[in-house]
Design a protein that fits this description.
Elements (H helix, E strand, L loop, with lengths): L36 E9 L6 E3 L1 E4 L4 E7 L2 E3 L3 E3 L4 E9 L11 E4 L1
Antiparallel strand pairs: 1-7, 2-6, 3-8, 4-5, 4-7
Length: 110
């Protein structure tokens, strides 16, 4: 009785990206002196082949508000990001009355 060699299974395909891709998902302003408002934009894109709906944006501090643009056009929630499209999550933080470090988390729900 001989042994039969089995071919190894084909390599698994890498999973297609799902969800929005944020190339720089964190930002730190550093020390802030004398500024009343801080601004930052988080760029994102939809690398997949299906549209992605942004249902909500949650922010842990009432000192920060968000705006959204998709392909350069202002968008209201819920908003759809077509495949291959890019967007910007714009933030404005008010520093008035704040002292010391103030970590703020933003969650984008799709």
């Amino acid at each position: 009785s001989g042994t039969v060699a089995q071919e190894p299974p084909p390599p698994a395909r890498p999973a297609a990206p799902s969800g929005l891709f944020f190339p720089a998902p964190r930002h730190q302003f550093g020390p802030v002196v004398g500024l009343r408002h801080l601004y930052h934009g988080f760029a994102f894109r939809n690398p997949g082949s299906l549209p992605i709906a942004i249902e909500d944006v949650k922010i842990t501090c009432s000192c920060t508000v968000a705006g959204l643009a998709i392909d350069g056009v202002a968008a209201n929630l819920p908003a759809v990001v077509p495949p291959g499209s890019s967007g910007l999550l714009r933030l404005r933080a008010t520093t008035e009355g704040l002292e010391g470090p103030k970590p703020v988390s933003i969650t984008v729900r799709t």
